[in-house]
Amino acid sequence: MRAAVVSVSAVIIAIFFVQIANGLQTSVLSVRAVLEVFPAWTIGVIMACYYVGYTAAPLASRFVIGRAGHGNVMFIGVLLAGVVIALHALLVAPVAWAALRVASGFVLSSAHVAAESWIHARVENHQRGRVFSIYMVVQMVAMTVAQLLLAVGDPRTAIPFLLAAGIFVIGALPPLCARASAPHRAPPEPFDLWKLFLASPLGAIATVLAGLTWAIVFTFGPVYAKKSGFDLQQVSIFMALAMVGGAIVQFPMGWLSDHAGRRPAIALMSAGGIAVSVLGYWADGQEPFWKFAATGLAGGLIFPMYAISCAHTNDAIAPQNRVAAAAGLVLLFGLGSIFGPLLVGGIITAMGSGGYYAVLAAASALSLAAAAATR
C-alpha cells in the first residue's frame, strides 16, 4: 500500500496545491459575482462555463498525453490555469468571466485526466479504492484550506485572484520533476465513451451524478450561504465544513468499497445524501448551526462518490485502456457538472435558496436508483 502511494506521490502533491487554488478561485468568483449583483441565473451560466471547457478537454487529452506525457500535460495545464485566474481580476464582466471559465475548465481538465490516468496505471485493483480515496482526501483537505484563505483578501480586490494564481504555479512543479516515474508515453488504445456504460453502467451514471452534485456545492454553496445572510467569514466556514466532511468520510468509504463492494458504498452514500438534503432544506430559515451541520454532512456523502465511481469503472477496464477511460470519466463528470449550476441557478431563482438542497436530493435519488437497477 505504501509503495503504491509513493509511486503516485508527485501527482498527489501537485493536486493538493491545484485544489487549494481551484477551490479559492471558485469561491472568490462566486462571492465577487454576488457582490457585483449579478443575477442568480447569470452566476449559474458563468459557473457552468467552467464545465463546458472541462468537458471539451478529454476529447483531445488522450492524444496529447500520448505525445507529450503525463508530467508535461499536468505542468502546462496547471501553469495556464494560474494565468487565467489572474485575468479574472482584470476583466470583471459576465461575458469575460464566462470565456475565462471555459479556458480554466479546459486546462484543468487536461491536468486531471493526466493525474487520474497516472494513478490508475500505477495502482492495482485491490488497492485502487483506498489509493484513489487518499487522492480525494488530499483534495478535500486542500479545498478546506482554500475556504479558509477566502478571508485573506477582499474579493473586490485583485489579492485573492493573484494568490490563487501563485498557488497554481507551485502546483505545476511536482509533476514536472517526476516525469521519469510517469506511465509510458505510448499513445493509448481508443476507448469510446459508450464502452464505459457497457463496462460499468453504475460507474458511468454515478460519475455523471457526482459531477452534478460536486458542481452544485462548489459553485452555489457560497451563493447559498451568502443569500442565507452569512458574512464572508461564515461563508468560508460553511464551505470549509463541506470539505472537512468529505475528507473525513472519503477514506472509510474507499475501504468499504474495497472490502464490501463498490455498489453498497454508492447506495449507502446516495441514501444518506437524500436524508441530508432533506435536513438542509428544512434548515433554510433556521439557526446557522443547522445550516453548518447540513453542509458538513452533505460534503461527507457527496464528495466521496466520484472516487468510488471511478474505482468501480476501472475495475472493469483493461490497463491499455486506462488513459482513454480516465478521459471518458472526466468527460462524464464534466457533462454532469455543466447542468449543476444551470439547474440550481434557475431553481433558486424560482423557489429561493432552498432550491439548492432540492436539486441535491433529486440527484441523490437518481444515484440510489442507479445502484439498485444497474451493475
Structural class of the secondary structure composition? mainly alpha
- Radius of gyration, rounded? 19 Å
Number of strands: 0
What proportion strand? under 5%
Uncertain spans, ≥5 residues at pLDDT below 50?
Answer: none
Categorize the overall geometry. globular
Question: What is the string of helix and strand elements?
Answer: HHHHHHHHHHHHHHHH
Give the biggest beta sheet.
none
Q: What is the domain tally? A: 1
SS field, number of helical segments: 16
**Straight-line distance between termini:** 28 Å
List the helices and strands and how they pair.
Elements: H1 2-7, H2 9-35, H3 40-56, H4 58-68, H5 70-90, H6 94-122, H7 125-149, H8 159-177, H9 193-199, H10 201-227, H11 232-259, H12 262-283, H13 288-302, H14 304-314, H15 322-351, H16 355-373
Helix pairs in contact: 2-5, 2-7, 2-8, 2-10, 3-6, 3-10, 3-15, 4-5, 4-6, 4-15, 5-6, 5-8, 6-15, 7-11, 7-14, 9-10, 10-11, 10-14, 10-15, 10-16, 11-12, 11-13, 12-13, 12-14, 12-16
